[in-house]
Amino acid sequence: MANSxxxxxxxxxxxxxxxxxxxxxxxGCKVKFATTAENGIEELxxxxxxxxxxxxxxxxxxxRSVARCVKNEAIQSKVFIVTSWKGELDQNLLKxxxxxxxxxxxxxxxxxxxxxxxxxx
Length: 121
Prior knowledge:
Elements: E1 6-10, H1 14-26, E2 30-34, H2 37-46, E3 51-55, H3 63-72, E4 78-83, H4 91-97, E5 101-104, H5 109-120
Helix pairs in contact: 2-3
C-alpha cells in the first residue's frame, strides 16, 4: 500500500490484537489498541483513524456501539467488525450501524487487504 493508514483495533483479546496487527503492519498500517469499546470511543475523540477494527463482542458496549458512535459523530473512519461467528449478519443492520465490512476469524491476509483497499483505497 502506498499510504500508511492509521488503524485502531478495539479488542480485549490479545490474540486478536496480535493477529490483526501482524496483518495490518504487513500492509504498512500504523496500529493502536483499545481494550474496551469505551476506551476506543475515547481514543476516537483524540485521534483521527482511517479504519477501526472492532470485535463484535467487546467489553462494555460491543463493536456495533463503536460503529454507531463513529457514524453519529460524523467521524470519517471506516468501521470493520471482527467476529468468529460464522452465521450471516444482516447487511441492512450493519449499514444502519455504520459498519463497512465484516472480517472473519481466523484471519486471512487477502480478505483484510481486499476489504481495507475496497473501503479506503
